[in-house]
Amino acid sequence: MTSSGTYNFGLSNSDIVLEAFDRCQIRPNMLTGEHMVSAKNSLNLGLATFANRGVNLWAVDLQTIPLVQGVSQYVLPAETVLVLDVYLETYQLSNTVNVAPSFSTTLNSAAVTVNQTAHGLLVGQWLNFQTPVAVGGLIISGFYQVASVISANSYTITAASTATSTVSSGGALPTFSTVTGSSTVTVTLANHGYSVNQTFNAISTTVGGLTISGAYTISTVPTANTFTLTASYQASATATLSENSNLVRVSEQSASVDPIDRILSPISRTDWAMLPDKQVQAPPTVYWFDRITPPVINIWQVPDGNGPYALKYYRMRRLQDASPTMGQTPDVPFRHVDALCADLAARLAMKYAPALFKDLKMEAKEAWGEAWLADREHVDLNLAPDFGRYYRDL
Q1: 317: which strand partners?
Q2: What is the distance, to the nearest Å, from the Cα of residue 290 to the centroid of all Cα atoms in its chain?
Q3: How confident is the model at residue 394 (pLDDT cuts 50, 70, 90)?
Q4: 212 — phi, psi (to 5°)?
Q5: Which residues of 256-292 are buried (b: 16+ CB within 10 A; e: fewer)?
Q6: How many domains does the chain have?
Q7: 184 and 237 assigned to the same domain
Q8: Range of 367's domain?
Q9: Which residues are within 8 A (CB) of 373 and not within 5 positions of it... i.e. 6 or more apart?
């Protein structure tokens, strides 16, 4: 005799319900609509308890959150049960190009098309627009990911808000204006969004005898389209010139350069509360997972402008809802099907066959124990004492 050669056996949710009632000595011809409703509730309650008994390896997946400078708290998907391993991915933007501004926007859309000859970019790669560009009521500045590649000469990014007008192949860079004998530099940039004391980073541009380069603190904001900087010396001429000779400077992620990953350590709510400065900006090193609904993850230090960064985390998700209709199967692997049947049988016995409850409860415990022991990573476990606090200065 030969074996089947197949690996297809499995039970649907309805099969599991019938099996569980059989263990309670309630046969299919005895079942009513009330039985099925009760079984559905018990089945889903049983799946909920699976999430409380340990890490379900089949329900672990990898999630990614692009981090934003100055933002420390991020809302996670509601089905997240546990956060297991968290690491910071830092992307290296090794290619720098200077291109003419050619951006297209559509009214009420956050999609922005960038026209750039032979860009060579792929979906998901990171960009840093070092020179801000005003287009369609938006300011394109800082880090973005390539959302789609239209052609070899154009791609799209997603802005933080929707455009207020439709623009085709346009965009304006900041212009710097100087007055003879004055150290004040007026910057014109439509809908710039800056406020006094914020920092403006300028690409080296020489205008009116002044070289505007590096970080400046904004002195005044006369209008929504202008603000002023104070140079370190006075201009020798009255002049106006666009930043970086009216070219957009873009740093791009190279497909040949790998990102760098660094593990983040978990801390407790108390540890978080003890942090003296929760807003200090630097590459994040720790996180606090707050299990509210929906759950949130708080990271510290707060992401700075030296990214782009992405937070990657393995999480255990909630098991999918189960319904004994339409041939649905439970969100468990084959090695846990018997444990689910045994758990459901014990729950139904509590309601319909109390004389069998004790025995079925014991069977459910044994079935879960066998499944749980098998559902783990078989790797070496190394334990080492932490002597660090023994050597602290008193």
Answers
A1: 80
A2: 16
A3: very low
A4: -90, 115
A5: eeeeeeeebeebeeeeeeeeeeeeeeebbebbbbeee
A6: 3
A7: yes
A8: 13-56+322-372
A9: none
